[in-house]
Design a protein that fits this description.
With 363 residues, this protein is of the alpha/beta class. The chain is 25% helix and 20% strand. It folds into 3 domains: 13-42, no CATH class; 55-128, OB fold (Dihydrolipoamide Acetyltransferase, E2P) (Beta Barrel), CATH 2.40.50.140; 134-363, Rossmann fold, CATH 3.40.50. The chain has helices spanning 13-17, 20-23, 27-42, 49-53, 169-182, 206-210, 226-233, 248-255, 309-312, 318-322, 339-353, and strands at 66-73, 76-80, 86-91, 105-110, 123-128, 134-138, 146-151, 155-161, 185-191, 215-217, 237-241, 280-284, 288-292. Residues 1-30 and 33-52 have low confidence and may be disordered. Bound molecules: guanosine-5'-triphosphate and magnesium ion (MG).
């Protein structure tokens, strides 16, 4: 029987070490995966998450200028230089295996003119400075330990629209876990407030309000809440995340008058279409910096430390967090105001344990 391998499909650790697990999916798509299986057999180190996240020593390159990685385009990156101009650069072979992300502070050299291919940028990134923070989520399959989202941010602002697409508190809890793991501040930004009646108190958010999670109701249409957000941005690097179509890019355009970041329409199924396709570093002069990101479908917490759950669900007694699966959210004796919070805890608790074989380091 042929069994196709799909992204996100969970497999056992020993499966990963067998070459034929990749062979089963047929010839066309399997070459890259075959190669990766071979690498796993011969060079486990290269898939160690510590190794993936560790950066080569930047000390030998301190004499070179430093810039900030503002956008990635496969093997080429945009950099904001110290004098705030934009340059394009290729990546040096020295950085092979290093995943650079938006927000990384990089050292770059100007490639000698004679070595230059006129179709390529004239600069080359040779080193990455140590990261102050690194935002990551669980990888979408076993070969990818983590998905790195951005570096050197101070806060996550997770955006959720009141409608189009519908408000899903589950994503907010997941984002809170990512923020805690990365040591970032965390705020919920409710967007499109103009699309619901002012009488609608958004009860979906009550459980979060009761846990004192900062929630800001905004509308790019009426400018509600925009001034407050600008104040909160002061001297910070803030990354905006959320489902596609919730209005992240529109919010940035509202916070930075004059910016014309592309925004999208809702599809007729009420889901966004990923108008933003790669993360982007956007300075807001006089305030701080925003990082726009592509809409996310799911935010995996696979591999994160279950200890973080105590901070996301402080309303539950510590002993519940030791084995939440022993509890029944429907059990009236538990006296739960929000049984869905216990169901949510159970889902996250199970998912966190599903560590993939390459996620052997918690950071
Ligand atoms: N009424 C109203 N519409 C809004 C508001 N903010 C965004 N929209 C609309 O929502 C749609 C999607 O906005 P985007 O800013 O492209 O959403 P996004 O989150 O950046 O989406 P991706 O880039 O796909 O992740 C656009 O049609 C916006 O005009 C708002 O405050 N009020
Ligand atoms: Mg966008």
């Amino acid at each position: 029987m042929t069994r196709k391998f799909r992204l996100g499909q969970s497999r056992e650790a020993q499966d990963l070490d067998s070459r034929d697990v990749y062979a089963r999916e047929g010839k066309s798509a399997s070459k890259r995966r075959q190669q990766s299986a071979e690498r796993l057999q011969t060079d486990i180190e290269s898939h160690d998450s510590d190794g993936m996240l560790a950066l080569p020593d930047a000390a030998p390159w301190l004499h070179l200028p430093e810039g900030i990685l503002t956008q990635r385009h496969s093997q080429i990156v945009d950099i904001e230089t110290e004098d705030r101009s934009q340059i394009r650069a290729t990546l040096s072979g020295k950085l092979k295996g290093v995943k650079l992300v938006v927000g990384d502070r990089v050292r770059y050299s100007v490639v000698p003119i004679e070595a230059m291919d006129p179709s390529l940028p004239t600069c080359q990134v040779v080193a990455v400075s140590p990261r102050r923070t690194l935002l990551k989520r669980g990888g979408i399959d076993d070969r990818e330990p983590w998905q790195l989202m951005c570096a050197n941010a101070d806060e996550i602002w997770v955006c959720a629209a009141v409608v189009d697409p519908p408000l899903r508190p589950g994503l907010l809890e997941r984002a809170q876990i990512l923020a805690l793991a990365a040591g970032l501040g965390f705020r919920v930004i409710v967007t499109k407030r103009d699309k619901a009646s002012p009488k609608d108190t958004l009860p979906e958010l009550d459980p979060l309000r009761e846990q004192d999670v900062p929630i800001h109701e905004t509308s790019a249409e009426t400018a509600q809440g925009i001034g407050d957000l600008l104040e909160l941005l002061k001297d910070k690097v803030v990354v905006l995340i959320g489902h596609s179509g919730v209005g992240k890019s529109t919010l940035i355009n509202a916070l930075l008058p004059g910016s014309r970041i592309k925004t999208g329409d809702m599809s007729r199924y009420g889901t966004g279409r990923q108008t933003t396709t790669s993360a982007q570093w956007i300075p807001v002069p006089g305030f701080g910096t925003l990082i726009d990101t592509p809409g996310i479908r799911a935010l995996s917490v696979r591999g994160f430390d279950r200890g973080l759950l105590a901070h996301v669900f402080p309303e539950f007694p510590p002993e519940w967090l030791e084995d939440p699966m022993a509890l029944d959210p429907e059990d009236e004796e538990l006296g739960l105001d929000y049984p869905e919070r216990l169901s949510s805890l159970q889902r996250l608790w199970l998912e966190m344990e599903e560590r993939n074989p390459n996620q052997n380091v918690f950071r």
